[in-house]
Amino acid sequence: MDFKKSVFYLSFLSFLTLSTFSCKNKNVQEKTDDSCKNQGLELPEWARSAPIYQVNIRQYTPEGTINAFKAHLPRLAEMNVKILWIMPVQPIGKLHRKGKLGSYYSIANYREVSEEYGTLDDFRAMVNEAHRLGMRVILDWVANHTAWDHPWITEHSDWYKQNEKGEILSPIPDWSDVAQLNYSNPALREAMKNEMKFWIFETDIDGFRCDVAEMVPATFWASTFKELQQIKPLYLLAEAEGIELYENFHATYGWTLHHIMNRIAAGDSTAESIDNYLETQQRESYRKNMQRMYFTSNHDENSWNGTEFERLGNLHKAMFVTMAFLPNAVPMIYTGQEAALNKRLNFFDRDPVNWSNYELTDFYKKVFGLFVKHPAVAATCPTGDFLRLDNGEFKDLYIYMRTIDDKKVLVISNLGREPATVPDLEIIYGDWTDLMTDQKRTIKSGQSIELQSGDFLVLFT
Questions:
Q1: Backbone angles phi, psi at 241, to 5 degrees
Q2: Coil, strand or helix: which one is 139?
Q3: Is a pLDDT exceeding 50 seen at residue 82?
Q4: Confidence class for position 383, pLDDT limits 50, 70, 90
Q5: Distance between CA 96 and CA 108 in Å, rounded?
Q6: 3-class SS at 451?
Q7: CATH number of the domain at 39-381, out of 3.40.190.10, 3.20.20.80, 1.10.4160.10, 3.10.20.340?
Q8: How far apart are CA 231 and CA 293, in angstroms?
């Protein structure tokens, strides 16, 4: 398909009008209110447009404690963060441990806080303060495996997968520091559900980010979440991308688009490949109130594949804004990105973030702020139409508009290595506000707009 042609704009718009991830203008919304109801889990109202911030307690401060991190909460609230995703804080197994401190995801006791980080009271106080500041807290939950010295290993060895010799197995050879749980055992399912309940009752968390969610049976998530949601409305994020996960989760990872962006930055693809993603992945998977989390970094990407500066170079900001306002998008950043963190954090040992400057704080604050407040880019229905606009002869120029009633957001990004000129498009004529400069900007017929590599515009009415 030739995505440069104006006919694509019309056909893609027609597709979106019929699709499950675009609500139409006010008149159509009034006719299709029922279609805006969640077809899966009921989404908490506070999660409709809530940017996510991933917190690595170990690396956040020189102290590496919950209390030391807590001092940063007012700054994060000011940055328009709405959901704090806290990486695991439980004690880490010592048997077969990797590195000096071990993996966050090798849990030796689900109901305790590691002495490395503080106490359960510290965690509870952090959650309370986040709530006071208008943020919610979700806890990283590792349901697929435990550390080798978790009490269950000796007390309930039948809760683990074993070979014919009766030896407990790791999930995969490279994960030698953890033991694979066996969800065919009903007693394990009940125990794991109760461990999750503990954190809701004892600390008042607001949901879970579920590690390697596809490796845990969907039937466990379904029965467990049904019961947990009766305690309080929860936000449930799956570390996976499969369509079937939307039966039990509100949000999944945008891995496919993340890898597309990496390929574009490496020169192995063009920005037009984003259209293929939208037309296929979105058509197949998106229903009302089903969210996709987009990011340029996270704990795995940073430590194992490189920072956003390594992988994306000068394109990292343009790529972030391009993803942030797509249909059903939820933008997420990782610990230190607002400080322009340009090093790979050690995964198994202490390696604190350098907070000597907050170079990108204003950038993320503005992107998050528009995402939170502008109705055209709400992550869930009712939200704005998505209009993919003609990029002319420039394959790495990506232009789209989100519209609802008279409210609009226009995103123009040069994701290539060469300068690009924005085509003369009548649909973008008019008066706008520039998100990054806070200045008024008028686009007129015949006006030339040139963007250097990595430049972008986010305009709104």
A1: -130, 0
A2: strand
A3: yes
A4: confident
A5: 12
A6: strand
A7: 3.20.20.80
A8: 25
Confidence class for position 283, pLDDT limits 50, 70, 90:
low
Q: Which amino acid is at 372?
A: V
Residue recorded with tokens 């008019």: 430
Cα distance between residue 419 and residue 371, in whole Å: 28
User: Looking at the DSSP assignment, which residues form a beta bridge with residue 180?
Assistant: 145
Position 71, amino acid: A
Decide: residue 278, CB within 10 A, 0-12 exposed, 13-18 middle, 19+ buried.
buried
CB-CB neighbours of 461 under 10 Å: 14
Nearest-angstrom CA–CA distance, 354 and 361: 14
Cβ(140)–Cβ(87) under 8 Å? yes
Q: CA 298 to CA 56: how far, in whole Å?
A: 10
Structure-token pair, residue 446: 């015949």
**Per-residue pLDDT tens for 332-373?**
999 999 999 999 999 999 999 999 999 999 999 999 999 999
Mean pLDDT of 205-217: 98
- Residue 363 tokens read as 């950038």
* Cα dihedral: 248, 254, 256, 257 (round 10): 150
Nearest to 135 by CA among 55, 219, 34: 55
Q: Which amino acid is at 127?
A: V
* Half-sphere exposure of residue 60: CA atoms within 13 angstroms, side-chain side: 24
Query: From CA 332, how far away is CA 372, in angstroms rounded?
Result: 13
The end-to-end CA distance of the chain, in Å, is 32
Cα distances (angstroms) measured from residue 198 to each of 48, 118, 140, 162, 276: 26, 18, 14, 28, 43
pLDDT band, residue 16 (cuts 50/70/90): very low
- Beta bridge pairs of residue 460: 409, 433
DSSP 259-305: HHHHHHHTTSS-TTHHHHHIIIIIHHH--TT-EEEE-S--HHIIIII
Name the strand (E) or helix (H) holding 77.
Answer: helix 73-78
> Is residue 458 a contact partner of residue 434, using CB atoms and an 8 Å limit?
yes
- Return the structure tokens found at 277: 């993603």
Task: Write down how long the chain is.
Answer: 461
Residue 90: its H or E element: none
Those residues whose C-beta lies under 8 Å from the C-beta of residue 69, and which sit 6 or more positions away, are 55, 57, 60, 61, 126
- Supply 43's token pair: 């989404």
- 140's enclosing H/E stretch is strand 136-141
Nearest-angstrom CA–CA distance, 327 and 291: 9
Domain regions of the chain by residue span? 39-381
User: Two tokens at 13?
Assistant: 């718009």
